[in-house]
Each structure stands twice: as C-alpha cells, then as structure tokens.
Amino acid sequence: MPLLDKFGRRDAGERGLLVAIAENLENVLNSKRGYGSPLPDFGIRSLTEYATRDLIAAAVMREVREAIERYEPRLELHDIALQPDAGPFRLSFVIKAAIRTRAQVLEVSFDTFFNNFAVARP
Measured between alpha carbons, how far is 38 from 36 in angstroms, rounded to an integer? Predict the structure, then answer.
C-alpha cells in the first residue's frame, strides 16, 4: 500500500482503488530485490543466470506471481500469460486478477519493451 494512502490520501470510488492498486503494482514490480527496501523479498530479483527468452519469461512470470501474492493483497491472481506476439527481445504478458472486495475480473497488461502498463475489464 502506498505510503500516502496510510496517511489518508485516498481517491474516492472504484477509480481510486484501481489507481492505488496500479501504483502499488508499479512500485513492487519495478523494484529490484535487495535495493531500496528493508524487506528482503520485495521486488523482482536479478535474472541474469537465464540465457534464453523462454527461461527468462518463465522466471519473470514466477517472480511477478510471488510479488503480487505477497505485496498486493487486494488482488486475487488468476493467471499470468506470456503474449505470443512479442518479438524475440521483448517480454509482454497479461495478468488476470480480481479485486478481492468485488466480483469483477481485471486484466493487467505489461509490456516491458515499450514500458506500457494498462488495466482493463475483459
């Protein structure tokens, strides 16, 4: 949960909740493990030991799943899938999750090559 939210800065309604979740995901998933946080498992670890795109993609999706399950309790994670149309030097994947307090399912898309992040309802 973002620090300012703990001090009462909250946007009202569904949009505010989505913004807060997106900001938290951005913070967790853009953090390198071991840097800038006293929590030893916060962020994504270095994946330099993997040599192929497929191994890197599998490791990234594992890391993302673990990070979301630990640090975004408002989401119930359903699936993480690699986008098949991504090029050989590009990782793009879709996370399907539901907000725990609501029945709606959200799709969160990440494109690491173009640095895109989007939240939509399927």
Answer: 7
* CATH number of the CATH domain containing 19: 3.10.450.40
Q: Which amino acid is at 74?
A: R
CA 91 to chain centre: 14
CA atoms within 13 A of residue 67's CA, in its CB half-sphere: 23
Boundaries of domain holding 17: 3-120
Put simply, whether the predicted model's pTM sits higher than 0.85 gets the answer no
| DSSP H or E run through 28 | helix 13-29
Res 111: pLDDT: 63
Q: What is the pLDDT of residues 48-89, one digit of tens each?
A: 899 888 898 899 899 999 999 999 999 888 888 887 766 777
Residue 2, amino acid? P
115 confidence band (pLDDT: 50, 70, 90) = low
Give the HSE-up count for residue 68: Cα atoms under 13 Å, Cβ half-sphere. Answer: 24
Q: Name the β-bridge partners of 79.
A: 96
d(Cα 73, Cα 28) in Å, to the nearest integer? Answer: 12
Count how many domains the chain has: 1
